[in-house]
């Protein structure tokens, strides 16, 4: 499910949640798509696993839980 898209000049940035039908796993992907003359000339993607943090990270107290909820306009805002 695409959560957000932004266009900055010839760069399209998308954020999507990717999961199988049974929703047994979940990932977020951020894609940076450069378009010239109507054609994609480069694509960079960064994937993140939405599952629980690994034990080594919990042991080191690295990171915090981030809640992401849509506002009235459907844009997602981060709340920690």
Automatic annotation (TrEMBL):
Superkingdom, natural source: Bacteria
Name of the protein in its database record: Nuclear transport factor 2 family protein
Protein's organism: Ruminococcus hominis
InterPro entries in the cross-refs: NTF2-like_dom_sf
